[in-house]
Design a protein that fits this description.
Radius of gyration: 17 Å
Shape: globular
Strand content: 25-35%
Mean pLDDT: 83
CATH class: Alpha Beta
Number of strands: 6
CATH topology: Deoxyribonuclease I, Chain A
CATH superfamily: Endonuclease/exonuclease/phosphatase
Oligomer: single chain
Number of domains: 1
Low-confidence stretches: none
Strand order of the largest sheet: 1-3-2
């Protein structure tokens, strides 16, 4: 799926892709989810969903982790202001750990600067 496409209407296609490829971890950016779309609507069997929605339309990030992996969302010490992010700690065999970061910084709006001659 291309970035910037609404995830919710494409869930059947996305679920089929996941069933075909069976990735352990999936990270998505610009997923266009918001608080009115509940987790049940974008649930994938045998995956834990983590999401960080943008308060306005568009943007946001989501991470799916296969349920056979032990995972936990980490909370950054500082709240990001100009971007969305998720950090997920995954505990592997022999207590080794992996941290996955999913960060999206939207393009900044163009600034209109006065032209002087």
């Amino acid at each position: 799926m291309k970035p910037g496409l609404h995830l919710a209407p494409k869930m059947d296609l996305f679920r089929a892709w996941v069933a075909d490829h069976r990735p352990s971890i999936i990270t998505l950016s610009e997923k266009w989810l918001h608080s009115n779309i509940c987790n049940d609507e974008i649930h994938i069997d045998n995956y834990q969903l983590y999401r960080a929605d943008r308060p306005s339309r568009a943007g946001g990030v989501a991470t799916y982790v296969a349920s056979y992996l032990v995972s936990k969302r980490l909370t950054p010490e500082v709240d990001p202001i100009h971007f969305e992010c998720l950090f997920i700690k995954i505990t592997l065999h022999k207590n080794k750990q992996l941290i996955i970061g999913n960060i999206y910084r939207p393009p900044l709006p163009r600034l209109s600067l006065p032209i002087t001659y």
